[in-house]
From TrEMBL:
Record-linked Gene3D superfamilies: 2.40.50.100, Nucleic acid-binding proteins (2.40.50.140), P-loop containing nucleotide triphosphate hydrolases (3.40.50.300)
Claim: Membrane is one of the keywords in the record: no
Name of the protein in its database record: ABC transporter ATP-binding protein
Family: Belongs to the ABC transporter superfamily.
Length: 363
């Protein structure tokens, strides 16, 4: 059993509190991604699970056992670091076997594990090479292999792809996804890259200032962000935000953009009842605004400032009622309107998000 339970975890470095009363339950076989910007506490949480740092309070349970004070070697984990952390003086085979040899594992078992992992990661041709003779992607495969040969219950990844170029990151991302599907082990993965998080995770924990802001599936994180921080952090280009207020009267609810139009949001699925008048923020993804409004029920005026081609997609940057906005659409539309073009965008209330302006919480 490889369930991981984090209970009321606190981590402090001197007077600085990095993790604050954090709780997280990771089921056996899950691929959890800890997502956030630098300094949010995601690597600290991973290191606390690994036993590489001391915790100030709370508990770390692995497989139902309290491992808060256990040594890293006694936690049943394999860890892959951002910097590869390979021994430069020995071969790939030597790097893969090092931990097993230190544990005095029989030679035939070591050979069996290395053979299995090297085939799985396609590093058989490199077993006799030293790390200096490998590319960055090959070194990272070796680093992953060194964790896998341990046949651990849990695998921890600390931004393992951040040193690689974009093409190689995309290739190894697919391989990591396939690896998880193949071995079915619990994996906890730290990244600041939202594409990695969205493509790899069973669930994503979005972190800010040592606190988990939302823990949900990638789809829920993207479509129903719990607050303004999550909504703005996930997505490229980021979600459009419009300041305004909500008004309810005669069975109808409208959002009034400051110095702008009214939008009927009566069909919006509110998480909680709202008062007759509430200062709020309306959010909508750039791809949910359509330059061809068609029969979509809602409309927004849009003034074009800049047009960007991104290959398969294009983005228009501009303003709505003086507030910044962006629109994303397929490049097959062949649109490249000049600066100052006035447009009308169409959208649906089903794709909106509404947030309380003061607390930032989803309404």
């Amino acid at each position: 059993m490889a369930e991981v339970s984090i209970e009321n975890l606190d981590v402090q470095f001197g007077a600085v509190s990095v993790l604050k009363d954090l709780n997280l339950l990771i089921a056996e076989g899950e691929f959890i991604v800890l997502l956030g910007s630098s300094g949010c506490g995601k690597s600290t949480l991973l290191n606390a699970i690994a036993g590489l740092i001391d915790v100030t309070g709370g508990k770390v349970r692995i497989g139902g056992e309290d491992k808060t004070l256990a040594e890293p070697k006694d936690r049943g984990i394999g860890m892959v670091f951002q910097s590869y952390a390979l021994y430069p003086q020995t071969t790939v085979e030597g790097n893969l076997s090092f931990g097993l040899r230190m544990a005095k594992m029989p030679k035939d078992e070591i050979a069996r594990r290395i053979d299995r992992v090297s085939k799985m990661l396609q590093i058989e041709p490199y077993l006799k090479r030293r790390p200096a003779a490998l590319s960055g992607g090959q070194r990272q495969r070796v680093a992953i292999g060194r964790a896998l040969v341990r046949d651990a219950d849990i695998y921890l990844f600390d931004e393992p792809l951040s040193n690689l170029d974009a093409k190689l990151r995309a290739e190894l991302r697919v391989e990591l996804k396939e690896l998880h599907q193949t071995i079915g082990k619990t994996m906890i993965y730290v990244t600041h890259d939202q594409v990695e998080a969205m493509t790899l995770a069973t669930r994503i924990a979005v972190m800010q200032n040592g606190v988990i802001q939302q823990l949900a599936s990638p789809e829920d994180i993207y479509e129903r962000p719990a607050n303004l921080f999550v909504a703005g952090f996930v997505g490229s280009p980021g979600m459009n935000f419009f300041d305004g207020s909500l008004r309810s009267e005669a069975g109808k609810t409208v959002f009034v953009i400051n110095d702008g139009p009214e939008i009927d949001v009566s069909d919006y699925a509110f998480d909680a009842p709202v008062g007759q008048s509430v200062t709020a923020v309306l959010g909508i993804r750039p791809e949910h605004l359509f330059v061809d409004a068609g029969d979509l029920p809602l409309r927004l005026p849009f003034n074009v400032k800049v047009s960007e081609s991104m290959g398969a997609d294009s983005v228009l940057w501009g303003t709505t009622a003086g507030q910044k906005a962006s629109v994303r659409f397929g490049s097959e539309l062949k649109l490249n309107p000049p600066r100052g073009t006035e447009m009308e965008l169409g959208f649906s209330s089903r794709t909106l998000s509404l947030f309380d302006a003061e607390s930032g919480v989803r309404l």
